[in-house]
Amino acid sequence: MDFDKLIKSRASVRKFSSKKPDWRNIIECIDAARYAPTAGHNSALKFILVDDSESIKKITKACQQDFISSAHYVVVVCSNPSRLVNAYGESGEAYARQQAGAGIQNFLLKIEQVGLSTCWVGYFAEEQIKEVLKIPKDVNVEAVFPIGFEYEKKRTKKAPIDLDRILYFNKYGNTKMQEKESIEV
Ligand SMILES: Cc1cc2nc3c(=O)[nH]c(=O)nc-3n(C[C@H](O)[C@H](O)[C@H](O)COP(=O)(O)O)c2cc1C
Fold this sequence. Notes:
Blueprint: H1 3-9, H2 23-33, E1 45-50, H3 53-63, E2 73-79, H4 82-88, H5 91-113, E3 117-118, H6 126-133, E4 140-148
Antiparallel strand pairs: 1-2, 2-4, 3-4
Helix pairs in contact: 2-5, 3-6, 4-5
The protein binds flavin mononucleotide.
């Protein structure tokens, strides 16, 4: 798929059909995350692919979002900041979270490209997720992604925020570009 089309067509899907995805396609999407930038080449990211229905039920409960239980697969993304903290001190914590965002976006775009659907779920009781998946204490749970095929190809994607609300020139808050006169030689 054309890159611009891919970016613009990605959308959160919260209703999945009963068709089971091929888990190998999900691995392909996780593989895409490896190509995202990493501070000092220290990857903090971990992906847990969950297909056990009992675990999915418990994850659904931890997120308090029922639609998750209709997915055959759930991917839980974690970050382990320890190597980054060793290398960069306090900043390592922030780098780990930033890397998670970069890796997740690659993952999401690949999900779109292979024809699967998901929704970024960031609301969850972290301790409950950790207990279900035996995630160590010092590892962050970043997000939960139920994966499936979209129930109906009827996405109601809201328009993105206007560009002029996120773009400033030279100084924070300056929304106008002052064109410099070009000097002809
Ligand atoms: C950090 C983060 C947390 C989110 N948490 C949830 C969530 O808990 N439940 C949910 O249904 N959607 C969640 N979303 C998805 C957003 O609601 C969604 O991305 C947003 O409405 C824009 O829609 P789009 O993804 O279709 O472009 C989250 C997204 C992000 C980036």
